[in-house]
Design brief:
Blueprint lengths: L19 E4 L12 E10 L4 E6 L6 E3 L4 E3 L3 H9 L8 H66 L1
Antiparallel strand pairs: 1-2, 1-5, 2-3, 3-4
């Protein structure tokens, strides 16, 4: 787990957990050739001389020799090399956590907007209901007054 020893050749690239790689040159599982994967937390298995990787879209990990892996340079790596900075010291799980936290914050903002919109609609609906009730009450009161006045006129006429 983790650090490589004698089984990993010194000329082979060393991959860190979370690093993106592309599988190539497999004879026993050619369907994995060209597939992107991520080095798992288990990293390099010294006893088998293989990296534990999880292919994109796959449910399980596979052991792949270092010579059958190529690093994938993502947009962030390209941006960093162009700017002269480096994210290699940032652990990929932390970067993913930051990405997920940003997504969660965006979802919280959307939820607040939806909630505010729902509250505004509920307030408008309540105001409309109060206006309808006020009109109905005024109509009922006017009808009662009209009936009362009619009864009073009828009583006076008798």
């Amino acid at each position: 787990r983790g650090a490589a020893t004698g089984k990993e050749s010194s000329s082979a690239p060393r991959y860190r957990p979370g690093q993106r790689v592309r599988i190539s040159g497999l004879a026993t599982k050619p369907e994995l050739n060209g597939v992107a994967a991520r080095v798992t937390i288990d990293g390099f298995d010294e006893s088998k001389g293989r990296y534990h990787v999880k292919p994109d879209g796959g449910k399980s990990t596979v052991g792949i020799k270092p010579e059958n892996l190529e690093p994938i340079v993502d947009d962030m790596d390209e941006l960093d090399s162009a700017s002269g900075s480096s994210t290699s010291s940032v652990e990929p799980p932390r970067a993913r956590v930051a990405e997920l936290e940003a997504e969660a914050e965006a979802l919280r903002r959307q939820l607040a907007e939806v909630r505010d919109h729902a509250e505004a609609r509920a307030t408008a609906a309540a105001a409309e209901a109060l206006a309808v009730a006020a009109r109905a009450t005024a109509e009922a009161k006017a009808e009662a007054e009209t009936r009362s006045a009619a009864e009073a006129r009828a009583a006076a006429a008798e």
